[in-house]
TrEMBL record:
InterPro entries: Aminotrans_3, Aminotrans_3_PPA_site, PyrdxlP-dep_Trfase, PyrdxlP-dep_Trfase_major, PyrdxlP-dep_Trfase_small. PANTHER family: ADENOSYLMETHIONINE-8-AMINO-7-OXONONANOATE AMINOTRANSFERASE, BETA-ALANINE--PYRUVATE AMINOTRANSFERASE. This is Aspartate aminotransferase family protein. CDD domains: OAT_like. One of its GO terms (biological process) is biotin biosynthetic process. GO terms for molecular function: adenosylmethionine-8-amino-7-oxononanoate transaminase activity; pyridoxal phosphate binding. It comes from Roseibium limicola. Belongs to the class-III pyridoxal-phosphate-dependent aminotransferase family. Transmembrane segments: none annotated. Its cofactor is pyridoxal 5'-phosphate. Keywords: Aminotransferase, Pyridoxal phosphate, Transferase. PROSITE patterns: AA_TRANSFER_CLASS_3 (PS00600).
Amino acid sequence: MSGAASTHTNNLEAFWMPYTANRQFKQNPRMFVGAKDMHYTTSDGRQVLDATAGLWCCNAGHSRPKIVEAVQNQVAELDYAPAFQMGHPKAFELAARLAAMAPSPLDHVFFTNSGSESVDTALKIALAYQRAIGQGTRTRLIGRERGYHGTGFGGISVGGIVANRRTFGTMLTGVDHMRHTHDPERNAFTRGMPESGAEYAEDLIRIIQLHDASTIAAVIVEPVAGSTGVLIPPKGYLERLRKICDDNGILLIFDEVITGFGRLGSPFATDYFGVTPDLVTTAKGLTSGVIPMGAVLCAAKIYDAFMNGPDHMIELFHGYTYSAHPIACAAALATLDTYDEEGLLTRAADLAQYWEDGLHSLKDCPNVIDIRNLGLIGAIELSPIAGEPTKRAFAAFLKAYEDGLLIRTTGDIIALSPPLIISKAEIDEIFDKLRKVLTSID
């Protein structure tokens, strides 16, 4: 099947769509059939401006020539190579480049295939590390309310989004959660990082006092909580978490699946905030969404702790069939080249103020109760319809799509994260269209 015929099907039923209202979608499908730079093309030939970088992932935009060419060439050269007891050059080249990008001492890389796999990998490495250094009683993992860490059992266990957890049983044992930092009474309509709220880090001390530090292996947080609706860390909060972890022998994991690769105007959020964790999970922007890939950046002390015993023995019994897949590595290397050549890892810093001003100009729109931003991330929180949570934001999503704009909603929050190639004119277009959307829905 090719051409126009390939863009249509008379059977939508077989595909059980993820995180989708399947019945609603299949009554009135929204189909993309092409993408280039800042726009998607729909099956009916319309152009839709991408205000979400796909799912927070297409940081370099769509169908970028260098990445496309790299993938095409790699398929013909080496389509697959096992990562267990074997290697291929691009895996080592990519790991070296990532290690050079990351702040010291994050100088080793374990490859995965998604953010969810990166999170589960980081959690397993943290547990195994504590045992390797003689701290085998440290088996407890600490997440945060409203945190999103993917959809594996490890990720939903340390995650704190109720809808992701409530139907799946008890999940991992030995997990606890700090409270989140969202404080609309004090911080509504803050531009950038809130002044108030660093004290929420002290909730980790409460948990340590409850369980004892000797039982806790690691704490995992998103530097900026994305999928829950863009929660910006208060000033001093991450620094305080780092110190509490250091004082108590606890590893700190940053989930940078969203914030990694330029979203805040620096390569990683750890650069932006000046706080270095022990492990960093990444995915999404690593390949600009072209091929599934993830990576965990590890501090040298963690890697070194495993490099004991006989040389012929496997040090870490963990990995995936597609770890360091050759095509994914080729896509990632070309993505990093594109970021470097176009200055995309720092471009958000140049556009952040313009983005912030445009976003906060919507403060007077109907039903807007909060606006949050950092780098090229934004959130517009709407008051929910009584007795019908999420319905108002979903109506905005549908109206925006009709008007040629792709946004993302979570609960009654509109989340925005455009490709880093966005122009000021396209920023204006996003907020002009959003104003019309917000004034037209009930």
